[in-house]
Structures are given as structure tokens and as C-alpha cells.
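Researcher: Next sequence.
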Amino acid sequence: MPSLLSSTLAQTSRSQHCLLLQSSTAQSCLPVLRALVKQASERTRETTVLFCFLYPPSSFLDSLRTQAHHIRIVNRTANVPGYEDAFETQKDWIAALKSEILETVRSAPQGPLNVVIDSADTLLSDIGSLAETTHLLSEVFGVVHSRGGSSRLIIHALAPCPLIPILTQTRFSSSLTHITAHPPALLTHLSSAYLTPPPPLSPPEKFWGVFIPISERHYESEKLVFGQNGEGSGPQEFVVEVLVRGGADGSGKRRGIERVLEGWSSAVGGPCDLRDLESLRTLWAKKLVYETQAAVDPTQNLSFNLNLTPEQQRSRAQVPLPYAHEGKPAETTRTPAAILYDPDSADDLDDDDPDEDLDI
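Model: Next structure:
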């Protein structure tokens, strides 16, 4: 069964028109975005529009693909509000930016359309208004959604960004694929400090209950990566959290929310299982050691035998148990509670009054 991340890259579900990639200071999601742009550019029957606000086009495509007729690139990395003489006010500059984005998307050839925006937080910084940026992205998504088929709006954002809670709401899109990059040190920390390794090493309910609130506190990951004992992060390998909401799977059946953890490794060349990440090998090694120790028979290598032969087990089963009232029929009716006492030979029982010699 293909992983969710592999299915997302291959665009197997035509109902997922909105794709949000979330990076952080601790871990970048750029390799996943690069793979998405590369695969979209290879589908020559689809038009791909790439808006670069943070990274240059060379970070996603080589010089040959940038010249393809089905790829349009809008490079805004060198455009800074307030530093262009062609506009008298910043308001005019923002209006021109919004007009350029909408006109480029609307003028794309008919057919499936992929719009990639890198990144939404830089776009928000340029426009300077959360409401205007949200409205602009809604208009772009409306054009993409109207094309149908395998059309997608791919948005890259650097958390914490105020646009992310808005883009993940069902008001913006009923179906959503949300990909978040996490450093492997986060899973190692949860395993050692909270005794909660990733599934299947621990129950999913327990793991997600611990993982989600800690991962949303970005300073925790930054401290693990860039702290005193941190090892840093990079694009070589990292953990990918994939959340799919709504839409249909390959069989056409509707589904709710699905959330999984997968790996990304440059050595593998893309998505992989968490077991394949070198930085997480210690987690699976601990499991193997535990299973090996649990499988060892504690009665082995002893100087005496603790096991019973079948004949000894049958003989033990035939030994009568020394019940005090054995043989009496069990009473089916409810009787008052009573204390049954068998007197011992040393007991001194006398029915006479022990205080009869006292003159009271």
C-alpha cells in the first residue's frame, strides 16, 4: 500500500485541490516542495504557475524546465515594497502585486492547473494585511478549483504564520492535505522524556495526545535542534506529518481525517518509512532489545528443574483441596451472614457466667 506522502506527490486523488506545506525554523519542508514542483512540471498536459517570493526559481527547477511552455514563473524575490520607483505609494505597489497574481492565474491555458506559492508568509509580509492576503488566496483557489481534474493550489508557509490557522479551516477548503516537517530530534525527545515513541512502538491515541501539543509549541523543537545539546537540522532526512481531510481515496470511498508520520530521506530519494531514518535507528533498536529479553525463558540455565512433566501435572490436579466444609451442598437461597468457627483443643470454653462471683 503506497504511503500518503507518495500518493500526494503522485496526485492519485483528484479531490484534493488544496495542499499546504508547513516549515519551521527547526525544520524546512523545502525538499518536499521541490519534489512537488518537479513532478508537476513533468506532467506536460497540465499548466504549472510558480510564484517565488522566498526561494528563487532555481531552487525548484533547472534552466531547461523553466523554459517549458507549460510552466510559468513569476519571480518576486527581488521585489521589495517601498523600493521600486515605478509606484508612488505602497498601496499602488500592493495593488499591482495582487493584480499580477490574479491575472497570471486567470490567463493560464484551459485544463488542469497547478499554482505554487512560495511562500505565504512572505506574501503576507508584502501585502501587510491578513484579510487582503486571505481574500487573494481565496480568489486564486477559486480559479484552481474551477479547473477540476488534478488541479491543485500548493502553498508553502513558515510557521508560526497567522495564515496557517485560516488555510486549515473548512471554510477555505473542505478537503485539505497538510504536510508538516519535524526534526527527528522531536521523536527522540518524546521517546526518552515522555516514554512515548512513535507508533507502532506505542498506542496511536497515546502518542498523538503527547505529540500534537508539543509539536505546536515551536520553541520546543527549536530548543531541541539549536539548544546546547542540539545537533541542528537539514534537508538530508526529517519526519513528515501528513494530515488528509476529506476527499476520496483510490477506491472512491469518502473518508474523514487521516494523520500519519512518515520519513523523508535524501539517501532514499524521497518518502520512506520511519525505520529507514538513520537518526531514529536507536528507537527501533530499543524495541528489538526489549523483545529479545522478553522472549528469554527465565527457567533456563538453572541448577534445578522448575517445570513439571505431564504425569506430575495430572497427579497435582488429582490432589483434593483441604476445604473445611467440603461436601456440604451449596445453598441457593440467600441466608444471613454468619461466622463459622471450629474451636481448637486449647480453647477454654465455659457457658457459665465468668462474673458470677462478683457482687454487683
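Model: The longest strand covers residues 237-245. DSSP finds eleven helices and nine strands in the chain.
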